[in-house]
Structure formats: structure tokens, C-alpha cells
Amino acid sequence: MPATVRLNDRAAIVGIGQLPFSKDIGRPIGDTAVEAVLRALEDAGLKPSDVDGTVKFQMEDTQECAIARRAGVDNLRFFCEVKYGGGPNCAVVGHAAAAITLGLASVVVCWRARNRAARTSRPWAQERGVVHDDKMWHLPWGLIRPVDLIAMWGRYHMERYGTTREQLAEVAIAFRKHAMRNPAAMMQKPLSLDDYLGSRMIGDPLCLYDCSLESDGAIACVVTSAERARDLRHRPAYVHAYAQGTGPNQVHLANYNTSDFSTSARYCAEELWRRSDLQPKDIQCAQIYDAFTPLVILGLEEYGLCEAGAGGRFVAGGTLGPGGKLPTNTSGGSLSEAYVHGMNLVSEGVRQIHGTSTSQVPDCKAVLVTGAAAVSTSALVLRGD
Amino acid sequence: MARYPTLHPDHPLPDVDEPIGRPFWEHCRNHELRIQQSRSSGRFVFPPRPHYAGDFEWVRVSGRGRILSFVIVRPPFLPAFQARVPFPIAVVELDEGPRLVGQVLDCAIDDVRCGMSVEVVFEDLTEQVTLPQWRPVRP
């Protein structure tokens, strides 16, 4: 076995940028991505000419050469993209940190521009006719919408561990409370348990408020070496650890094949904590991928922030909300801020380290950020000095 | 592909000609549920793997299993499934171990339960495509 190159704290996120989230941004993603990148560079105090690398989401139909050209970047000497929807929100940063640590690039930008608020933009609604590869094993039966695919884990958890709809509601309500403190969040109205229980069922046992928003948005971040980061404007958000994972016999979006019905997150978590000096007990604030509420309860368990099976009880009583024991998705997350494939979870993790969150955890130095867990996934531990 | 007249033209269909999974669909067409089993380890694997990736044999399985989890798909949903909504889809663990997803037929949606014993029932969608579905095992 070759010696492992440790990435721990060798690179840092030094700037973030975003456009206002909306139901109709009115501009193509090849435009909004550029502006988000420029805003992130400005936040970092860096220039487009400093950039020499990019890592993007494969699902975003843009070309990095065009984004770089429009932003005024001279030359990319490192560029790649990572697949699987919202799975790579942390991997894009991890790949950037790896490239920087290996000297393949010095300033790498990562972004996600996503226009999904329009009904016509939903991929699942376009599925018809002959389907291929992994989709062949669930779409023909009508298991198509992400909500239905994720509801399988929700039902299983409720059945096996006694998790209740009221506990799922705790997740949605806690994130709404964070959103209402965040002027950038799309959802600003209070959400009550009655609102939750009274909403329509979509993929039973999941209802409307178990589902993330559909939004148009664009978010970028800038990654550079720890040495360079120390001379820049913000307290560096060090990439302390990063990991990816698929788990065994992975079927994209429908991986019901693990013996204990766990998700890819369990396998990613093992690798993450192996690579991390900080451990679950050290985490002060979490940003758990929340396309649907059960993923938060599962994520808390699979990343070791609570015992396996205890996630429902753990979130009860406002644990995740403002002032709770483990403030989580402190910008409102995908459920109440915006759904940008979890890139807002990365940027909010950075704000917690910078000290600029609207639900700031005092003196926050250790944040866990995670990616979509029903698919091949990724996670990050961000550390502050 | 010839379709049965009740099938909605947009209904998603599996790529039954894809070489890795083709035997599975051929057996389904004959109303037989066959799953790959490793000759050396005895383990069943699903979804199918290429024949050259192991010592697999397509073995006829019991067609019995239990519901591990399920979802009730509520409208609004795709037009292709308009005649079915609301309907239950389950993850079924076969007695032999592998897990398949499929609809639970011949069962009121309020009666579907985790742990319920089910057996396979074949639904012909087109001349080429037959889906394994599930129904409760009644004593």
C-alpha cells in the first residue's frame, strides 16, 4: 500500500458567493454560475486571474471552460466534475482540496447553479419510454419520484425504531426556525406541527413538509492552500477531512440492498471519521443533506451524532433548532432556505466557521457537512482555528 | 414494441435487450422469477451482473418473500400511472435474500404492512415486457 497523503487542514474554503434564491431567476445557469463564482472570489479577496482549477457537479449542464472564460480566468490546469445529483456537494470541495494538496492547482472554484423551480424542469416528470441502467430496476414499477424513493427509508425507520411523523416534523420545524432568521431563505413563514400534520401526503408516509423546496439558485466557493488562506480576509474554513462512499451493491437512488437498510452515508461516515482527527463528539454544528426529512434522521445516526435507531428521539424537543443541543442546517437547509443540491449546506458550514451565520453557533470550530445519502455520497469536516 | 392497449404510451419500460439483464426479462416473460446465484458461494445477486463477472447461474427462486418497506404513491403523479394512483410500491426481500421493488397488487392500500408475506405475480405490460409484481400470501 502506498503511503496515504493526508489532506487534513492543507486547504481551506476562503470565500463564498451566491445569488438570491428564487422561483424564477430568469437567467440561464451558464450565467448565474459565473456571477456566483465572481461573488465568491470577491468575498475571498481574490481575482479571476488567481483561479487555475474548477470542480463542478456532473448533473449541471454547463461547461467549465465557458464559465472560466466568462469569469475572466486565464487558464485551468485542473478541472473535473463529480456525478450523482446532490451526492457530490462535499466531494467537489474534497477534490479541490486534494488537487491543491498535490500541487495540481492553487485556487479552485466549486459551484452549483441549478434552475429547478419550474415544473417543466423536473427530470422525474420527463421519464417515459425505455429506461436504461440502474433506472430499469425501479422506474417501470412507478418508483420514480425522489420523494417515493426516499419514503422507503422513512417507512423502514418508523417501523423498525418507532420513529413518528411528529419527529419528522421536528426536523422541518427546526429548519424553518433557522430560515426565518436568514433573510436569504425562501421560506419565511412559521411552520407549526398542525401545519405539518394537516398537509397533503405525497409519498406516504411523507407529506408536503417532508420535502425540500424547488428553487433556482447559484452558489460558489473558493478553495486554496492553508498557507495562502491565512493571508486572506476570512478566518479559514479548513477542509479538515473529506470522504466519499457508495456502500455495497449500490443502485443509484434505490439502494435498498444493504443488510441493515442503511444508506451510502454509513460507508462514507466510516471513511470520514477514519480520516478526521475531529470526531462526532467534537462537532458543534451539522449541515445534513435534507432533500427529505428522513435523510436527516438517518444522517445523524449514520454519521454517529446519535445512536443507530435513536434519530427520531434525538431530534425531538428542538435539538436541531436555534439554541438547540446540535444546531443543524442553520440557514434553513434544503427544506426551508433553498434546494441547490446541498451547496447551501457547504456555504452555511463556511459561514459558521467565518462567524457570519444568522443562526451562529458561538465560537464554532467544527462543522460536519454531508451530501445526498440515498446516492453515492460525500461528506466534509470543516475546522476553524 | 407491441403494447397491450391498456398501457399508457408514456409508461416507463425496462431496456429488456440490454445484455446484462436480458435473461432476467426473458424468464419474466415466461412467468418465471430467476435470479443469478454464484455457483461457488451460493449467494444470490440482484440486480444482474455480467456473466463474465462471476460464476453465475440463473436459478429459479421461490417467488416468496416479505415486505421490508413500502410507499403509497399519491397523486398528482405521471399520466402513465393515472389508472393506478394511489398505489403501493414495496421493497420485497425474497426468501433467498435479494431485494426487488414492485407493486403490491390484490391488496387494499390500507392493508399493506411491513413484514407482510408476499408472492410474485407477473404482469404483462407489452409483448416483450413482463414485470414481477407482488400480492399477499393468503393462508
Q: Report how far the terminal alpha carbons of chain A are from each other.
A: 33 Å
Shape of chain B: globular
Poorly predicted segments of chain A: none
Helix content of chain B: under 10%
Q: What is the percentage of strand-forming residues of chain A? A: 15-25%
Total number of distinct structural domains of chain B: 1
Strand pairing plus helix content of chain B: what structural class? mainly beta
What is the helical fraction of chain A, as a range of percent?
Answer: 25-40%
Biggest sheet of chain A: strands, sense, closure?
9 strands, mixed
The description of the largest β-sheet of chain B is:
5 strands, antiparallel
| Class of secondary structure makeup of chain A | alpha/beta
CATH uppermost class of chain A? Alpha Beta
Tally of structural domains of chain A: 1
In the CATH scheme, what's the topology name of chain A?
Answer: Peroxisomal Thiolase, Chain A, domain 1
CATH superfamily of chain A: Thiolase/Chalcone synthase
Q: What does this 3D model show about the protein?
A:
The complex is a heterodimer of chains A (385) and B (139). Chain A is built from 12 helices and 12 strands. By secondary structure, chain A is of the alpha/beta class. Chain A has a single domain (11-118, 212-383), classed as Thiolase/Chalcone synthase (Peroxisomal Thiolase, Chain A, domain 1), CATH 3.40.47. A 9-stranded mixed β-sheet of chain A has the order 3-2-4-8-1-9-12-11-10. Chain A has a two-stranded antiparallel sheet with strand order 6-7. In chain A, helix 4 crosses helix 9 (293-302) and helix 5 (165-180) crosses helix 9 (293-302). The longest helix of chain A is centred in the N-terminal third of the chain and has 16 residues, at 29-44. The radius of gyration of chain A is 19 Å and the shape is globular. With 139 residues, chain B is mostly beta strands. Chain B has one domain (22-136). Chain B is 6% helix and 37% strand. Chain B has one helix at 22-29; strands at 13-14, 34-38, 44-45, 56-60, 64-73, 87-94, 99-103, 117-124, 130-136. In chain B, the strands form 2 sheets. A 5-stranded antiparallel β-sheet of chain B has the order 7-6-5-8-9. In chain B, strands 3-2-4 form a 3-stranded antiparallel β-sheet, with helices on one face. The longest helix of chain B has 8 residues, at 22-29. The chains are: A alpha/beta (385), B mainly beta (139). Chain A binds chain B through residues 125, 127-145, 148, 151-153, 155-156, 159, 200-206, 249, 251, 254, 256-257, 261, and chain B through 10-15, 18, 21, 45-47, 68-74, 77-78, 80-81, 84, 86-87, 89, 91, 99-103, 114-115, 125, 129, 131, 133. Strand 5 (130-131) of chain A pairs parallel with strand 1 of chain B, so a sheet runs across the interface.
